Amino acid sequence: GNSVTQMEGPVTLSEEAFLTINCTYTATGYPSLFWYVQYPGEGLQLLLKATKADDKGSNKGFEATYRKETTSFHLEKGSVQVSDSAVYFCALSDPPGGSYIPTFGRGTSLIVHP
Amino acid sequence: SQTIHQWPATLVQPVGSPLSLECTVEGTSNPNLYWYRQAAGRGLQLLFYSVGIGQISSEVPQNLSASRPQDRQFILSSKKLLLSDSGFYLCAWRESSGTAYLMNTEAFFGQGTRLTVV
Q1: In chain A, which residue's Cα lies nearest the Cα of B58?
Q2: Cβ pair A91:B107 closer than 8 A
Q3: Does position B61 have pLDDT exceeding 80, yes or no?
Q4: Second label for A2, Cα 20 to 30 Å away, from A99, A105, B15, B99?
Q5: How far is B75 from chain A (nearest CA, A)?
Q6: Is pLDDT of B103 > 70?
């Protein structure tokens, strides 16, 4: 079955530091990959996505590249802000005909200090 | 555009009382629907999913049940709440098939319900 593994948190950084949150996946098909962000007390919001190998998803300064050869989708940001403090979830969805259920990682908490 | 509504936002209920959380989706047809629970500081636990009216699949045995009385309505229920039912409940939807699914394979989440059983 499908699975998503992301690094344990919390990740604690100072403002303007570089961020990497690792994510690797296992899938039988050719999935789409996603990063979601969850701010305290809220639901998950889609941050970025990539649907095929070598695609780069980007949004709000965050980037992630779909690496099929390493089955990875690491999240990066060059300079984090205090407002980026949240929980980040890596996820995948099967293509049509695959599983009905999107697969999520366990989430990585990011804490950014001023 | 599509939207998802989930209510109530917060709920405090005594042990042994019933529960009904409602989720509705607008702007799409025949979506796949999901209920997740998130314990404090934890990841997402899939509770139920539905691929059509009246079709419910349960992922874990528990004190809860789900129903889908209409295409875009998904209800999470309990007859008697336990303390362990406390948590953050999230409803989500995803396109099910066709061109819409090819274009948008991501799940969309409601704002969540914070349930505290006392």
Answers
A1: A101
A2: yes
A3: no
A4: B99
A5: 17
A6: no
Helices (H), chain A: none
Which of B32, B46, B111 lies closest to A42 in CB terms? Answer: B111
Cα separations in angstroms, A24 against A50, B9, B29: 14, 33, 32
Q: Which residues contact A104 (CB under 8 A, 6 or more apart)?
A: A4, A36, A89, A90, A91, B43, B44
pLDDT in tens, A44-94: 999 999 998 999 999 999 999 999 999 999 999 999 999 999 999 999 988
Q: How far is CA A74 from CA A11, A58, A77, in A?
A: 14, 12, 10
Set of chain A residues whose Cβ sits within 8 Å of the Cβ of B112 = 41-43
Cβ atoms of A81 and A88 closer than 8 Å = no
Query: Chain A residue closest to B42 (CA)?
Result: A106
Average of per-residue pLDDT across A34-50:
95
DSSP character at residue B59:
S
Torsion over CA: A107, A80, B111, A100 (sign): negative
